[in-house]
Design brief:
Helices cover 30% and strands 24% of the residues. By secondary structure, the chain is α/β, with parallel strands linked by helices. The longest helix is centred in the middle third of the chain and has 17 residues.
Length: 379
């Protein structure tokens, strides 16, 4: 994240509320219980919230375990002073294995090739490397199949310097509190853990935010939390409405400002393709935000923003760096007035879940889009 000089600030600003991040971590730790470890998922630049700053906030709240996708992310976290355990979830490329030793990172393995490379590096370094094995118990993604487990365990002694410290898997349907698949899959996972722990005790972890919230019996030794730490429920608006305990707090807001105001007569086409044509004299605010900023074209004629604490709808196609909002019903709007795309203004709030519904996606994608495409600052 480049900290820009105040005079070179963009119109578009993403703000991350540091206290919300710490609060969500504490709430989820309370929720799963003090004796269960939390791996904070900070991959993908912490879902658009900024990996380094966000990991530091979770650490302040007591987090000592972090999950990243690629090894470079782990190296960056370690280089910026993050302590505790850092898991690299997507594997690594040949020649990167030394980085696990140099930066004290924990590899997740799912191939013999990875075991072999890590074993050779362990011998070279004169160190033990504790790995976590990923088993695919029903996600159909990364991991060895349960039927391959016995063979994998019996091969372990062929890899000097490697010890098996954990078994992990991942739920595909835990965001649906009614899913019967989740508990059935958990039974299979428990059998896998029992087979593995016959040789030595292993750390078991399968639960994500959905499982931690809706299937608490699956929390095992550790949970891997992402979306809940950023203040959202994995099942969207429904989860927020049905949360019985103190609610999670969204950490991200996204603002821009009005750059021009114009009044156009009826029968005026607005933006590319004239997908919106005015039916009466219309007052339009031009906003300097578009799909290059993560405000996707699919929000054209669907999305809304907050101006003067009221909702204004987006009219016409969203352009690369501009879009238009109808402010005919909102008096007193001036160029330079703040506009909220995500967050609260006055009594109104637009959440990532609501934007996701307009975009026909999920809050995760909205947060990544906004956070990774704009200047971020922290309060």
């Amino acid at each position: 994240m480049i900290h820009s000089h105040p005079s070179s600030r963009s119109f578009n600003q993403v703000c991350i509320d540091s206290s919300a991040l710490r609060e969500n971590f504490s709430k989820m730790q309370q929720r799963v219980g003090r004796d269960i470890r939390i791996m904070a998922m900070v991959k993908a630049d912490a879902y658009g919230h900024g990996m380094v700053q966000t990991a530091a906030r979770f650490a302040e709240a007591g987090c000592d375990c972090f999950g990243v996708a690629e090894i470079e992310e782990g190296v960056e976290l370690r280089s910026t002073g993050i302590q505790g355990q850092i898991f690299v979830l997507l594997g690594f490329q040949p020649s990167q294995e030394q980085l696990f030793f140099d930066y004290n990172l924990t590899p997740v393995v799912f191939t013999y090739e990875a075991m072999d490379l890590l074993s050779q590096a362990a011998v070279r370094n004169g160190k033990e490397m504790a790995v976590h094995l990923k088993v695919d118990c029903g996600m159909g993604r990364l991991g060895i199949m349960p039927a391959e487990l016995q063979n994998f365990l019996s091969q372990l002694e062929n890899f000097p310097g490697i010890s098996l410290a954990g078994i992990m898997s991942h739920f595909p349907l835990a965001d649906d509190a009614q899913s019967t698949h989740t508990l059935a899959m958990y039974q299979q996972y428990k059998e896998v853990c029992m087979q593995s722990s016959q040789q030595a005790p292993v750390l078991c972890h399968i639960a994500n935010s959905g499982a931690a919230l809706y299937f608490p019996t699956t929390c095992c030794d550790m949970v891997r939390l992402g979306i809940s730490l950023y203040g959202y429920y994995p099942d969207g608006t429904k989860g927020t409405q049905q949360a019985r305990e103190e609610k999670l707090v969204p950490a991200m807001s996204f603002t821009t400002q009005v750059v021009q105001i114009k009044t156009v007569p009826e029968a005026t086409g607005i933006s590319y393709g004239h997908t919106f044509v005015t039916e009466k004299k219309t007052k339009v605010a031009v906003l300097p935000v578009g799909y290059a900023d993560g405000f996707l074209r699919s929000l054209s004629n669907r999305g809304q923003v907050l101006i003067k604490g009221r909702r204004a709808r987006i009219i016409g196609r969203i352009c690369m760096n501009l879009c238009m909002a109808d402010i005919s019903e909102i008096p007193g709007v001036e160029p330079g007035d703040p506009v909220v795309i995500l967050g609260s203004q006055g009594a109104e709030t637009i959440t990532a879940d609501e934007i996701a519904e307009w975009m026909e996606t999920i809050s995760y994608e909205v947060l990544c889009l906004f956070g990774n495409n704009n200047n971020r600052n922290y309060k």
